[in-house]
Structures are given as structure tokens and as C-alpha cells.
């Protein structure tokens, strides 16, 4: 059966079953299957799709996203001559079982009757797929809005692990980078292809720090350079556990205010706009901690530089140790003064997530000591050895021992 045929069959089964289940919504939404993504490897084909919040409510009749539960639909086709086994832990080591999802989604055991529990249970993906067979169904995972990243691992009877990695856009969030026209940020005559020595010189000549909209102040240090394509950069940071950020809007400000008051986590919280090249950041990522007041976050600007045909980004990374609202900028962050520590955190983070191919260091920020720190736009002090780390993103998993450490004569102070 073709992939399209399987979609039609599974969708029809979902619609019929859902229409008869007590407590389920009348209108069922299968539009999420139009966004399905397929990969094939070693005679195994995996097709995945992730319904949005509203689509999930229509499919299951309860607010799973509100309970931090996100269904992932899988279709696994085994064209091998031997059985394969799907390994759920590879997709999400803290996944929810179907009945657990029904109970949590309904708001408690007393609100999820036997029909609802069976409805969820019947929709689960089967782990075992015989030769020439395909299995379709849902896994219930931890919520990850924006771009959902996960692995799908299957195990063969030849003791072979076949691994697939997916990055699936999920509608719902207004992400800050979705409106960027990457191909037209710079006219052709401004784009510069540089060799190594010229690249180092150009990076050292870049501004030391971010600024404000009027280019009148000196902000956080630009201590980060990333070399990689748009897709590779996004996938690398998402794979390393960084969240995309929402654009500032009424909805995101409401969620941010609630998180600020309650001290809860808001993984896609907007970041304030800092300026370089006459514009606010092109993209921002954050790694949330226990609450909105504590997070690592970074901003990236695509520069007009190219190295070996690959885009060069300039960026700023810092660690939030507090968040406060202001009349001027809506929200601002209070940074840990030791910005070099956060810079090195990113190096290790990308290395451990196998997303880093090479790294080096250049000057350009300017040193500031602990005893005589500099200040950013909101008056927060920081100290630094003045170096920028240059990170080459790897589109393929890179072992820790294979990362090339370049000595460009500007090694950081240890």
C-alpha cells in the first residue's frame, strides 16, 4: 500500500472511531497529515506528522497541549525480510502512555471514562512490525511547540539499530524568524566570500557589541560566530535542546506575564530586540531552566560574509539570572556578568549534541575585567576576555573526539 493509501486508511479509521467515542468532538481534523514527512533507510520507511493544539483537541476531544502532552503520529513500513521493533524511548524517554494521556487530558481519572481510555489505547503505535507490514498510530510525548525534533529508532533482528531524525514544524506559534527573507537580506554586491585570513580580519573588525534601534548605545557583547546554512543552524540548536522564540505579540506577552507572575517556565518566551546591521536579531533561541527568570538565550544575525560558500552569523549569548518589565523595552533581562562562561557552555552543549565540526577564537569584543566591568544597554555589568568563539555547525552527527580545535592565535583565557 502506498504512503498516501495508508494515510487515507488511517484517517478513515480515526474519523469513524472518534465519531462514536463518548466525549469526543464532532468535528475531526486530519489536516495535520498533509504536513507528514517521510524518510527511508535500510528498507524501512518512517512517516511522521504532528497535529497542532487545535487539531489535537479535535482529534482527541481533550486539551492535551494544556497538559503538556503532544501526540506524534507515525507510520512505520517494514520492507525487510525480517521483523523490526520500534523503540519508543528513542523518540521521547519521558513519553506518556495512552491511558495516562487520556486521564491527564481529561483532567483526572474520574473524568476519563472507559470509552475515552479505550479510544486513546486503540490509537497507539504498535512496537512490532512484521516483514512486509506497516503499523500506524500515535505516541504521546512531551510538548515541544514551534519545531518538533525527535528521533525514531527501530531495531532489527540482525542487531542493527536504524536511526531517523525528524524536524517537524508545528503550527500555532508566531516564531520570530518566520518572517525573515533570508535570500534578500543583502544585495548581491554586499555579499563577500572570504578566505581564512580575510575572514579572521573581518570578524575582528565587526562591532564589539549590540546596540539599540537608534544605534546610540552599547549593549551586550557579540561573542559568538556561527558558520552554517539556515537549516543546519536551526536544526543544530534544536537538536541541542534550544527552543525557538515567539515574536512579541499580545498572545506572547500574555503568556510571558503569566509566567513572570507565577515563576513558571515559558520555553518560547520572546526576547527583547537588540540591534546589529541596522536591524533586530534575525533569530533567537533559548534554553529554559526552572522558570522564566532563569534561562540561557542567544541572538543571531546573518552577516554578509561567506566562508567556503557557507553563511557566517554573528551572535550574542548570555545567561539570564532575572527578568523585569520596563516601560521602554517591555521586558529586559538581567545577565550573569560572566558572559564567557555562557559562551563556553554553548561550545560544550553543541559538542555533546554532536552538532559541532570545528571551533576557533578571534578577537573583536574587547576585554573587560571583573574589577572594571562594562555595562550593557540596561546597565547590567559584564566582564570578558574579549574573544569571539567561531563554531562550524555539522549537518551530520559528529563525535566529540572528531571536533577540530583551530588555533587562530586568539585562544581564550582559561
- Mean model confidence by pLDDT: 84
Low-confidence parts, pLDDT < 50 over ≥5 residues?
A: 1-28
Gyration radius, in Å? 24 Å
**Main sheet characteristics:** 10 strands, mixed
The assigned structural class equals alpha+beta
Coarse morphology: globular
User: Can you count the beta strands?
Assistant: 22
* Tally of contiguous helical segments: 9
The residue fraction in helices comes out at 10-25%
**Ends apart, CA distance between termini:** 60 Å
How would you portray this structure in words?
The protein is α+β, with helices and mostly antiparallel strands and 414 residues long. It has two domains: 3-170, Immunoglobulin-like (Sandwich), CATH 2.60.40; 182-405, no CATH class. The protein is 23% helix and 32% strand. It contains nine helices and 22 strands. It has helices at residues 3-20, 53-60, 88-91, 98-106, 114-122, 196-205, 230-239, 250-262, 339-352; strands spanning 37-41, 44-49, 69-78, 84-87, 128-129, 134-142, 146-156, 161-170, 192-194, 224-227, 243-244, 275-276, 279-280, 283-288, 295-307, 310-326, 330-335, 356-362, 374-375, 381-382, 388-393, 404-405. The strands form five sheets. Strands 9, 10, 11, 14, 15, 16, 17, 18, 21 and 22 form a ten-stranded mixed β-sheet that branches. It has a four-stranded antiparallel β-sheet with strand order 1-2-3-6. A hairpin with a 2-residue loop joins strand 15 and strand 16 (310-326). Helix 4 packs across helix 5. The radius of gyration is 24 Å and the shape is globular. The N and C termini lie far apart (60 Å). Mean pLDDT is 84; it is low at 1-28.
Amino acid at each position: 500500500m502506498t504512503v498516501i493509501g495508508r494515510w487515507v486508511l488511517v484517517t478513515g479509521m480515526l474519523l469513524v472511531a472518534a465519531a462514536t467515542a463518548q466525549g469526543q468532538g464532532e468535528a475531526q481534523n486530519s489536516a495535520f497529515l498533509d504536513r507528514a514527512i517521510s524518510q527511508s533507510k535500510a528498507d524501512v520507511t518512517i512517516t511522521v506528522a504532528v497535529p497542532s493544539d487545535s487539531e489535537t483537541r479535535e482529534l482527541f476531544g481533550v486539551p492535551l497541549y494544556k497538559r503538556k502532552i503532544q501526540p506524534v503520529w507515525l507510520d512505520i513500513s517494514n520492507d525487510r525480510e525480517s521483523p523490526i521493533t520500534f523503540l519508543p524511548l528513542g523518540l521521547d524517554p519521558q513519553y506518556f502512555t495512552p491511558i495516562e494521556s487520556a486521564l491527564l487530558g481529561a483532567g483526572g481519572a474520574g473524568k476519563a471514562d472507559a470509552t475515552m481510555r479505550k479510544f486513546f489505547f486503540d490509537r497507539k503505535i504498535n512496537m512490532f512490525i512484521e516483514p512486509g507490514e506497516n503499523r500506524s498510530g500515535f505516541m504521546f510525548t512531551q510538548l515541544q511547540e514551534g519545531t518538533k525534533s525527535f528521533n525514531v529508532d527501530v531495531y532489527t533482528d540482525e542487531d542493527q539499530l536504524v536511526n531517523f531524525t525528524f524536524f517537524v514544524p508545528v503550527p500555532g506559534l508566531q516564531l520570530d524568524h518566520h518572517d525573515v527573507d533570508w535570500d534578500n537580506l543583502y544585495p548581491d554586491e554586499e555579499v563577500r566570500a572570504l578566505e581564512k585570513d580575510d575572514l579572521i580580519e573581518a570578524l575582528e573588525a565587526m562591532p564589539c557589541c549590540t546596540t539599540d534601534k537608534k544605534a546610540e548605545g552599547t549593549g551586550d557583547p557579540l561573542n559568538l560566530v556561527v558558520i552554517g546554512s539556515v537549516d543546519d543552524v536551526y536544526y543544530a540548536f534544536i537538536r541541542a535542546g534550544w527552543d525557538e522564540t515567539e515574536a512579541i505579540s499580545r498572545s506572547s506577552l500574555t503568556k510571558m506575564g503569566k509566567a513572570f507572575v507565577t515563576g513558571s517556565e515559558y520555553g518560547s518566551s520572546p526576547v527583547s530586540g537588540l540591534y546589529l546591521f541596522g536591524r533586530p536579531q534575525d533569530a533567537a533561541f533559548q534554553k529554559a531552566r526552572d522558570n522564566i527568570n532563569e534561562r540561557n538565550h542567544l541572538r543571531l544575525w546573518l552577516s554578509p560574509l561567506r566562508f567556503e560558500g557557507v553563511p557566517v552569523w554573528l551572535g550574542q549569548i548570555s545567561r539570564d539570572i532575572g527578568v523585569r518589565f520596563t516601560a521602554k523595552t517591555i521586558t529586559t533581562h538581567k545577565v550573569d556578568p560572566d558572559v564567557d562562561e555562557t559562551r563556553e557552555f554553548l561550545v560544550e552543549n553543541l559538542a555533546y549534541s554532536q552538532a559541532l565540526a570545528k571551533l576557533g577564537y578571534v578577537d573583536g569584543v574587547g576585554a573587560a575585567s571583573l574589577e572594571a566591568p562594562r555595562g550593557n544597554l540596561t546597565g547590567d555589568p559584564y566582564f570578558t576576555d574579549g574573544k569571539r568563539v567561531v563554531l562550524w555547525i555539522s549537518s551530520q552527527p559528529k563525535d566529540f573526539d572528531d571536533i577540530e580545535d583551530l588555533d587562530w592565535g586568539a585562544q581564550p583565557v582559561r
